[in-house]
Amino acid sequence: MTDSATFAVDAFLEGDRLRRGVQLQVDDDRLSYDEVGLSLDEVFWVSRRAGLLLVFSRAYVAAFRASDDRLDDLSRAIDAKLDVDSLRAVGLEPLAWESILCSAGVAISGAISDAVQEGQTSAAEARSLKGLFVAVFTRQALHLFAREQTFRVPWPVAVARETTGEPRQARPALELESGGTALRILYLRPEEISAILEIAKGAPPEPAEREEAIEMFARREVAGPTPARLPEFTTSTETIREKAEKEAATLPSDLPMRIGLPDDFFADHFQELGETALGPLLFRKSAASRARSLAKAVEAMDASALQDDARAASLNSLGRLTETYDRELSRLLQGKRRAQRLDAELAVSEALRESLQRRFLAPVHNLTPQFQRLEHAQAELRLRLERLEEGPPEAEESELDEAAEEWHSALVLVDLDFAKAWQELLPEIGVAWSESLLPALAKAAAAPRQRVPEWVKLLVIGLITTLIVATVVLVLLATRNAM
Predict the structure, then answer these.
(1) 338-347 in b/e burial notation, b at 16+ Cβ within 10 A?
(2) How far apart (Å, rounded) are the C-alpha atoms in residues 310 and 276?
(3) pLDDT tens for residues 290-299?
């Protein structure tokens, strides 16, 4: 079974019209909306620019427009299906020797001359060029990619300037002219345009050796995403089981035997409660350990989401406790006299329920300082990580290492205190069972059974009622005949 997600977007596919308000579905191997299906197999670039998410494949070019939040969600959904950073790094690797300045998904309009591409000085017939392209600016040339098309405009060019277009649009554009080539390029950031203008009209430098540092080549484009690094955790299914068995051994053994509970009932019950209460921590640790990058691992262990999940899980664990008690109470009351009255009498009281709820939620509330520390640490780590990956490949990693170490320390503290809080809560749950719930179940087990099955009673009552009605009818008929 595959995971899929659906997003309301405006969709544009080159060669098709703009479709507004479509439902875009993201599956493991395709994007689809209306009758359009777009395979993810040959996607080589995904770019977020100017309120658009641009998807470049060898077979198509597509653009999706929506609010920033929705595009964030869509981008994450696609990134979960494709290793976007690795695809981008693979695509840029052949150009690394040219010293890459920047790369982006852009909109192009104008014309390009084959003569310019071949480095000739004479004018030649130019072909029209319009649409969405991946633009890679190096110190030697501009490279354009779309579908199976590739174009190269070498430096220097005769004209390179920035224009702002119409006042209403106020979107900067880069214009390049050289021989028969005249291109207008949208969706570049101002700092990217400034860097390009510095080199577009000058003679290109000598090609750099591959092993030399690439001054303006972002680290993520060269090396891909920073791999995840996680600390050692202590909480696991095995430790939860150990604590469950230890606590189960402290409960009185006579009452469970008298009410027909199996020997391992409380060990299994306490383990289920622990796995439910600590489930978010275990699940998020597992997701972080499988993350393909440090950024994804930080996202998996998000402090705010973990705290919300922990609160919900604590209440779910309490729900499992009361469900278990209700199930055993119902079992013991089967065939007993006044079963309904006893069920109401022996049900978990509101006072006990509220007391248990306070006990179950207390650990989550007490962990608030640890969650706050983790939230601060992850924010700092994300900032350092972004700076490193957007910076040059040779940048020092010391600041990232410091931020990662603080994040690790915060994670370990949350993990340890989570386990400690559950270990402290288990005896309180045991007290609730031994002092309140087990005696109530014992009372239900000791209640006298019905001497006559309920269905027999109902049958007898029905027969008696039928005989009475028949007798009345016969008396009325005899009286009427006598008259």
Answers:
(1) ebeebbeebe
(2) 9
(3) 877 888 888 8
